[in-house]
Design brief:
- The structure is a single chain.
- This protein has 18 helices and 30 strands.
- Helix 3 (about 60-80) crosses helix 4 (about 95-105).
- The radius of gyration is 25 Å and the shape is globular.
- Its main location: membrane.
């Protein structure tokens, strides 16, 4: 009886969640001249005295947010910024960040949200690919900007918010601007099809790409996920993720903001302060991503971790091996896992909390989402096409690439794809003549399987799957197995080239928890969980993991160092048989493997 009730509840949540989302998205398409700036103005009129943005002792009401955004808009127009001009926003996590981009977008600017962790050539690249007419720089970012300034030729005007460090004083300039609502004569002619933001995503070369985010996509992300969460004006969303990323700055911040609720902004994630913050601010929702959940689980127990008012959390990347432990330890009533890319058009939501699933499209909803899983050739790196030249839909539980049909119109509110600043990058993500002549689909670059009930399960990123001994190895599957081994706190799995061998051998970089990790029992442990070809041949033990600000693991340097024990400064261990013990490598071992004296 209990399972029948749970299934009925799951179906109800899927239905109501999907309906709520579409009821919020379709009106956006029917009002093409209403942008996020207009929505904030409406919220200020209805909820002016309610708290909108909070950080420490700083509290901005909706009226404060709206007025300050108007000042930003007038300042931009006074600098000669017109519709379509790019303004780069390089600022840390604070309420001013949200105010700035909303205000600049009101002026018609396309706001490039700069990654605050970048320096030097990488930072200069992010500026160059969008060619900003002006830079709004938080004083806290002045040192980082200085590492790239000489590489910008010409360097656009730099305005400093919060100080005058080698730049113009933006604070004083804003104070001189009227905070009143923009008049009809002042307002640029904007529609939801116009660009609003550039948000940077990972590039295949290691350099970021600037994803084009239209006003429609901004509204869709902020309002759509607010609907998925069933957010209400009494909600208080705790945001610890970077605001320059869509997860923190649009999805999380927008969830409560768009219904008159409060957004609590943390400067940066802290596992030790997470629950005390949530209790102090009486947060009712938070968003997670990637390794954040694992960091919280690995942190010492806190008196606050079950004393909260959280009613749900929403995010992506919660791995099946820790899902139930995470929910149980922190007494979380509901977890909503989702899948989606900043620039993509594939949206999957796990409304009913099925462990391990990134989302579900029931049979009745398939005509609404235009999402398929197609057969993929690991060797060629391309979709499989039949004799008719068309792609082939996977059978239930068959692994393939997830794609989304590119559509426009009120009947397909989740199906838009606006591309990148780089047109070549845009074309590489588009697949044509998929099921019919001239149809267009967005390639996610992700491998998944879809079961008979419509649940999707993430398998791996294309490129993160490698071949060894003629078999495809999923780094995600291997990492999931290894992370369950006693003492392992974090793990990254990747393939490394070995002289004299086809494909790539599996290698793992691990970080131990406070108890340490003993590799002696690992071969037997993995033998019970992984096929022989998938078990790593090499293990690198690291003091800490190199991750991005959104908790994604960096593999570039690890792959480059390979299994050479003289690189990276970490001990490296190897096993030259399917279930053999791990032995610490020396330079001689490395040479013997390279010459074929030691065979894997």
């Amino acid at each position: 009886m209990g399972s029948i009730f749970a299934r009925a509840q799951g179906e109800y949540r899927n239905f109501t969640g999907t309906v709520r989302m579409f009821m919020r998205l379709i009106p956006i398409l029917k009002r093409p001249r209403r942008t996020i700036g207009d929505q904030i103005a409406d919220l200020a009129r209805r909820h002016g005295d309610r708290e909108a943005l909070i950080q420490g002792q700083t509290v901005l009401t909706f009226a404060d947010l709206d007025a300050r955004a108007n000042a930003y808009a007038r300042w931009a127009m006074a600098q000669g910024i017109v519709k379509g001009d790019v303004v780069a926003l390089h600022m840390g996590n604070r309420p001013e960040f949200m105010v700035a981009w909303i205000g600049l977008a009101r002026a018609g600017a396309v706001v490039a949200l700069i990654n605050t962790n970048q320096v030097g050539a990488g930072l200069a690249h992010s500026y160059r690919i969008v060619a900003p007419k002006a830079i709004v720089l938080g004083a806290e970012m002045a040192h980082a900007f200085a590492t790239a300034r000489d590489q910008l030729d010409p360097c656009p005007p730099v305005w400093i918010e919060g100080g005058k460090a080698n730049g113009r004083d933006l604070g004083a300039a804003l104070d001189a601007m009227s905070p009143a609502l923009l008049s009809a004569a002042e307002r640029p002619d904007l529609t939801i099809d116009d660009l609003c933001l550039y948000i940077y995503t990972s590039g295949t070369t290691g350099l970021p790409k600037a994803a084009s985010i239209s006003h429609y996509r901004v509204l869709a992300i902020m309002n759509g996920f607010s609907a998925v969460m069933g957010a209400r004006k009494s909600d208080r969303m705790y945001v610890t993720l970077p605001l320059y990323h869509s997860s923190g700055g649009l999805l999380a911040a927008g969830a409560a903001l768009t219904v008159g609720g409060a957004t609590i902004i943390r400067t940066q994630f802290s596992a030790s302060a997470f629950w005390s913050d949530i209790v102090r601010h009486e947060a009712t929702m938070f968003q997670y991503i990637g390794e954040l959940c694992r960091f919280l689980l690995n942190a010492p127990e806190s008196n606050h971790e079950r004393a909260h008012k959280i009613r749900l959390c929403c995010g992506n990347g919660l791995r099946p091996d820790i899902w139930e432990d995470f929910q149980r330890r922190f007494a979380l009533p509901r977890i909503i896992e989702f899948y989606g890319a900043t620039e993509g058009n594939v949206v999957l939501v796990n409304h009913d909390g099925k462990v391990g699933s990134v989302g579900r499209i029931p049979f009745w909803a398939r005509p609404l989402f235009h999402t398929e899983v197609i057969r993929f050739d690991m060797d060629s790196g391309e979709p499989v096409r039949g004799p008719d030249g068309r792609c082939q839909i996977c059978d239930p539980d068959e692994v393939g690439e997830v794609i989304g049909e590119v559509r426009r119109g009120t009947t397909a509110p989740t199906s838009r794809f606006d591309g990148y600043a780089d047109k070549r990058a845009t074309s590489s993500k588009v697949l044509r003549d998929v099921f019919a002549k001239d149809d267009t689909w967005f390639r996610t670059g992700d491998l998944m399987r879809r079961d008979a009930a419509g649940y999707f399960y993430f398998i791996d990123r294309i490129g993160d799957t490698f071949r060894w001994k003629g078999e495809n190895v999923s780094t995600t599957e291997v990492a999931g197995a290894m992370s369950a081994y006693p003492g392992v706190a974090h793990v990254i799995v990747y393939g490394v080239a070995v002289p004299g061998h086809d494909g790539r051998a599996g290698m793992a970089a691990i970080v131990s928890d406070s108890s340490g990790v003993d590799l002696a029992g690992m071969p037997d442990f993995l033998a019970a969980r992984l096929p022989a070809y998938a078990r790593p041949r090499f293990v690198r033990v690291r003091p800490e993991m190199d991750i991005t600000s959104t908790f994604k693991q960096r593999k570039f340097n690890l792959v480059a160092d390979g299994f050479d024990p003289t690189k990276g400064g970490d001990p490296v261990y190897f096993s030259n048989t399917d279930g053999g013990e791990f032995r610490q490598m020396t330079r001689q071992h490395c040479d013997d493997i390279g010459s074929g004296k030691i065979k894997l």
